[in-house]
Amino acid sequence: xxxxxxxxxxxxxxxxxxxxxxxxxxxxxxxxxxxxxxxxxxxxxxxxxxxxxxxxxxxxxxxxxxxxxxxxxxxxxxxxxxxxxxxxxxxxxxxxxxxxxx
Length: 102
Known about the structure:
Elements: E1 3-10, H1 14-28, E2 35-43, E3 46-53, H2 56-74, E4 84-88
Antiparallel strand pairs: 1-3, 1-4, 2-3
């Protein structure tokens, strides 16, 4: 079942997001099991990430095993911000030009 989430990260500077994103791309080359779409945007008070996954389990595994360790390393051992996650149902998704990782 497709699973999606918005993750609001208040107080996270865009530079911190960019550093983590860059490190994750270097590590994974954009090949993340179960991830269908990832996009992020700067908000008035931090960052917001929107992702669509093949399953919640795939999201939780990647967050626990890859994202959190990389973010912790880049933050000098500090725990990365939890953020506010809001899951939602996907009613339609079209990605005609796959193979993009920016």
